[in-house]
Amino acid sequence: MRFKHLVEQVQTIARREQVSQADAARIDDLLSGRARLAANQHATIERVFWAAATSEKWLDLLPQHIRSCPPVRLVERGYQIPAWPAEPYVRRQIENRSSRMLPFLLTVNTNNPRFYELISQMVLLVEADGAEKLIPSLIDYVRSPYAFSKKNLGASLLRLARLGLMTPSMELSYELVSFRPDPRGDEKSTQRHKDPSNWTLSLEPRPKLDDWEYQEVLVKGVRPLGDFAPLETSRMLIKAVSEMIRLRQRSEDEQEPSAKDSSEIWCDRVDRSDRAHLDSKAALVHTLTYACERVYEHQDDVSLGNLDTALRQARYRVFDRIRYHLYSRHPLRTITWIREAILNYDDYVDSAFGYEFQQMIRLACEQVGRELLSEADRKTIFDQILSGPDKQGFKEWLGDNFTEELYRQRQRYFWLAQLTPFATVLFDKYRALYNELSSERPPPTDDDYSPFSVGETKTGGSRSPKRAEDLLELSDDGLIAFLNDWQDAHRDEKQWWVDVDFDGLGRAFGEAIQSQPARFLAWKDRWFEIERPIYFRYALDVATKRIKGGQHAELKEWLSVCEWVMAQNDASVDPVDDISETSRQRRAWDSARRAVVDLVEACISEEVSVSAEWQPQIYELLRLACTVQDQRLDKNGAIVTPRDYLTDAINTTRGRALENLVSYGWWLRRQERPAPEVFDVLESRFSGKPALSIPEYTLLATSFGRLWGLNADWMQHHVDDFFPKSKQETWKAAFGAFLNFIQPYKPWFELLEPHFELGLDNLQQPHETKARPTFSDSLGWHLFLHYLWGQFDGRPNLLELFYARTRPAEWALLFDQIGRSLKSTNSLSNELSARVKEFFEKRLSVANDEELREFTFWLGAECLDPEWRLRALSRVLDITGGRGLSASILIEDLQKIAGTQPGLVMECFRKLTNAASTEEHFYLLPEPAKAILNIGFASKDPKTIEDAEKAQDNLLSSGHLEYLELG
Predict the structure, then answer these.
(1) Count of domains observed in the chain
(2) CA quadruple 281, 287, 289, 292: dihedral positive or negative?
(3) What is the tens place of the pLDDT at every residue in 317-341?
(4) Number of C-alpha atoms within 13 angstroms, CB side, residue 943?
(5) Which terminus of the chain has a lower count of CB atoms within 10 Å, N or C?
(6) Which pLDDT tens digit goes with each residue over 841-893?
(7) pLDDT of residue 496
(8) 63 in a domain, yes or no?
(9) Partner residues linked to 463 by β-bridges
(10) Which residues span the domain enclosing 143?
(11) Is the confidence at residue 256, as pLDDT, over 90?
């Protein structure tokens, strides 16, 4: 008998209200294992039967199977909660208010929370005497360390209290720590049906403790736990917040979008409160954010990924707000996630940004710059913004009060508000429009993006002792004297979260410059009377924005300020950490020099590209910046852990200057001018004036291709300068960066062959980290392409040497990378196609299961003929048994080919489904899988039909019952 037919037979018996002895014996044999089914088939039969069984008589006929609720299994890293096969049947009987279920459940002995959940459901349906008998089980449930969720106990508590069982109700209350339902929920629901517009009837769940006690627990108990185990604490709090929000919603709201959590109302800031009284719901969110921040401070990138996944999987808007808050505090570590969030935002046309979202955009644009988003992506976003907001909706909202002028004002403010977070990366017409809009009214501050903000806050929690307009009322001498003399940095007495500090004054100074640029452009030597470097940083930030905005006529004055800044030396103080950009005597100029480099970067960018007449001044600034002292680089200090040399380089003044030196060369190239001075600076640095740090070597390695484009002849003679083999750590960092960031180029092979050989000798260096792909990950890709181009013909095959010196994990990564590359390739020459197939045959002959599991993307490579791909997959499946392959991706590609190659597709599908019984998380997309099965069943080829039937049985045997009706 086919397994499909057995499943249908079991379903038929299960649905009968009148059960014969023969039927009962048949089911007993199947459930007891006497039918000799495979383990996965036995589990499926259990699931099918208990999901369909309805008759109360099964309590008498199969009591031992119903009562068999397996206990929690302890495993090395925690515990597993087995399924209770009879759970659907028991739940159904409870919902049908079967009088026999209460005494029956009291005979079950298990610690499985699936059982406890049914007990809590039973409490809601019985009277006082029955509920009292279930109290010991409820207490066990509360105290049990094993549970999916204890949310139903809130309703159980309420039921016990209403039945007069106050003692056990209080006992359970002290055991619980999560929120419980609004005790007036039923009353409010009744009233709301009468008056749906009454907002006072919203549900308000409460903690089990008074507000002040609850917050004491959070501050003195949970926050310290967050310090010790931040990731685990964050996950627990995500669950608690999710449950709390769910309890605020009525049943009819369950299907509402995640934005309906109204969190901006009851939690205006995810990390702190602007209210005198802290609501318990907000306190819980703040504690979650605190724990998440500790993950970012103390955990590795894997933990960050786990945290981010957990926040994404939570359904409510508040979790997105927390993610955006975290990203804004750590933009360099979350560039990919920030880019994804910006590109996936679905309503630039009409939806105003939230506080955290816009702050994330603004800080990422300021710190990452144009590398965050391509110009094409930015153009798409900006065009969407400028197509809004919805005029008809605005007209309907205002009614008779609508005028075109009001809409124009609304539109222009909407544009200003939506473009402000992107201000530092605007270009061309968008920059011009933004300058026009911001001249009409001040751009919004962070707080202006909070729809329900309370109280006054300032960006970054700091404020100037004088507003920009107050500074402008001072004379030039008075203003400079105030900047030099003011030093009363302090915490605001009334608003304890606001610092009155140098940063606040620096921002106000920058706003003053932006408001009256002509006044400050006329300062000339007066600039050099300012004694604190921080104000040059803010002034040059404004200058950079103005240059990006097209104010090129101001360059002479601003470059003069830059030249003076670059001529300044840091104070000679020991220890060097005692110098500061806010000091008048112990001055540190690095941040001001960084602002100079940022201004130069703007000048030579493709978006701005000032005239080449400024070449002498720009070059001199870059030359100085490339050779200036840099405390972080000179002290060999790491910025992130695990250390990433490229991160160190691009976040330091001298490193960023070297990067801009290359861009300077291309700026001149665009204006058809030579740039030999670029290589003069490089030769000076290679000769030790000053000596290049490892981060700088790493950065130059990532610029190898751009430098080659400027002067290939020079580069051919200086390859070994970029990758100094005599300095092992430096060579490994630099060549590793080259491998990671630069794509292979055929003409480079002979120049780099000695370095490839040295790389093969250094594959297993123990100090490698996972901050970026490992050395061996990238080396294999380069060697594969050189193999594909035939550059190992007639010489030692370095690719074969790579395989001899690496492990299956590296083979699998390379095999996957090749597959992904092939899938994105439109066509291959016959020669290259033959080499790819030759390579596949060599790897197949090794027959390594771990490597061949990464065949997934090969199947979708349309540059290779479909019959070859299918036969290759079939042979791979013979070796792997279908284990470890991404079945859901393969199935989509199989469906595409099924119409022209039904026999081979069905053969592969049958082999792929063999893994359904062995893979813990085997999953297929139902629609393409069903389409393939239907093609198989419709075939006239007996072999194809047989493969379809076997594949269907494979799926049904593993519990995939959605395929039962096919065939």
Answers:
(1) 2
(2) negative
(3) 999 999 999 999 999 999 999 999 9
(4) 7
(5) N
(6) 999 999 999 999 999 999 999 999 999 999 999 999 999 998 888 888 999 99
(7) 56
(8) yes
(9) 500
(10) 3-175
(11) no
What angle (nearest 5°) sits at the alpha carbon of residue 179, between those of residues 176 and 180? 90
Q: Measure CA of the first residue to CA of the last residue in the chain; give whole Å.
A: 15
pLDDT at residue 220 above 90? no
Task: Select from 470, 467, 466, 461 the least CA-distant residue to 495.
Answer: 461
Beta strands 490-491 and 78-80: pairing type? Answer: unpaired
934 in a domain, yes or no? Answer: yes
Between the CA of residue 603 and those of 363, 373, 430, 454, 671, what are the distances in Å?
21, 19, 17, 41, 13
Average pLDDT of the chain, as a whole number: 89
d(CA 889, CA 348): 32
Decide if 357 contacts 345 (C-beta within 8 A).
Answer: yes
Helices 230-248/280-298 angle, 10° precision: 150
CA–CA dist 838, 94 (Å, integer): 64
Asked which of 175, 209, 226 is the last residue of a domain, the reply is 175
**Residue 174's pLDDT band (cuts 50, 70, 90):** very low
* The token pair that represents 583 in the structure block: 């000091």
Higher pLDDT, 404 or 28: 28
Peptide bond into 183 cis (omega under 30): no
Angle between helices 301-313 and 280-298 (to 10 degrees): 150
Task: Let me know if residue 966 belongs to a domain.
Answer: yes
Highest mean pLDDT among 76-85, 697-706, 789-798: 697-706
pLDDT at position 262 is: 82
Q: Is the pLDDT of residue 212 over 70?
A: no
503 in a structural domain = no
Largest CA distance in the chain: 106
Q: Which two tokens stand for residue 365?
A: 């644009």
What is d(CA 733, CA 735) in angstroms, rounded to the nearest whole number? 6
Alpha helices in 456-528 (DSSP H): 468-473, 476-485, 502-515, 517-521
Residue where a domain terminates, one of 142, 175, 208: 175
Collapsed DSSP state (helix, strand, coil) of residue 661: helix
| Residues contacting 716, CB < 8 A, separation 6+ | 751
- The mean pLDDT value for 476-494 works out to 86
What's the pLDDT band for 766 if we cut at 50, 70, 90? very low
Element (H, E) at 743: none
DSSP for 341-388? HHHH---TTTPPPPHHHHHHHHHHHHHHGGGSS-HHHHHHHHHHHHT-
Give the count of alpha carbons within 13 A of 585, CB side only.
Answer: 3
